Amino acid sequence: MLNIVLASASPRRLALLKQLGIDASVNVVDIDETPLRSEAAQDYVLRLAAEKSLAGSQQVNASDWVIGADTCICIDDSIIGKPDDYPHAQAIWQRLSGGWHQVCTAVAMTHQQRTQTLINVNHVCFDTINEEQMRAYWETGEPADKAGGYAIQGLAAAWIQEIRGSYTGIMGLPLFETRQLLIAAGYKTQL
C-alpha cells in the first residue's frame, strides 16, 4: 500500500481523494505562485502542481508518494488568479459574466524525485451577473481563496449555465487524471 501525501491545504482536494478511497496525510507547502512572463495557463498549472509535489516530497519519507495540484481560470489565454479584495473579485466576475472561460487543473505525483503530471481542461459558461449578486456573493466569504473567485460546489453554482469537462477538475482535483497517476504507480483504487 502506498502512503499518499497531499501537498495542499485545500479541504476540497482532501475530500476528493477520500472519494477514491485514499486517506491521505496533508503536508502544506509554500511556493511562489507568480506566473512566469508569457506563461500559458496550462503550462502555469502544470509547473505549479509539479513544484508543489516536489516541494512536498522533500519534507516527507522517501517512500511516500506526494500529490500536488493547481487550478487556474483563464480567458483568452489570460490567467485569472484569486481575488485580493472585493474590487478585484468584481473585476474578475465582470469578465466571467455572460460568457465562457476555461478552468485548467493539473495534478502531479512525485516519488523519489520523479514527478509525473497530467492536466485537465474544462469550459464553464456563466450567466450574466449583476453588481448586487456580486456583492452578496463576496460577503459570504466563499470566493476569497478560490481561483477565479468562485467555487463550483458552492453558492456560485447558481451562476453556471453549462460545463464542458470534469466537475472534479473544476473543483480542483480531477479524479480521472489523479486515478490514472495512482494506477500507474501501482496503487489499487476502490473503483
TrEMBL record:
Its EC number is 3.6.1.9. The record marks 12, 71, 153 as: Important for substrate specificity. Gene3D superfamilies: 3.90.950.10. It catalyses: UTP + H2O = UMP + diphosphate + H(+); dTTP + H2O = dTMP + diphosphate + H(+). GO terms for biological process: nucleotide metabolic process. It is found in: Cytoplasm. GO terms for cellular component: cytoplasm. The active site is at residue 70. InterPro entries: ITPase-like_fam, Maf-like. Keywords: Cytoplasm, Hydrolase, Nucleotide metabolism. One of its GO terms (molecular function) is nucleoside triphosphate diphosphatase activity. Its cofactor is a divalent metal cation. Signal peptide: none annotated. Nucleoside triphosphate pyrophosphatase that hydrolyzes dTTP and UTP. May have a dual role in cell division arrest and in preventing the incorporation of modified nucleotides into cellular nucleic acids. Belongs to the Maf family. YhdE subfamily. HAMAP family: Maf. This is dTTP/UTP pyrophosphatase. It comes from BD1-7 clade bacterium. The gene is yhdE.
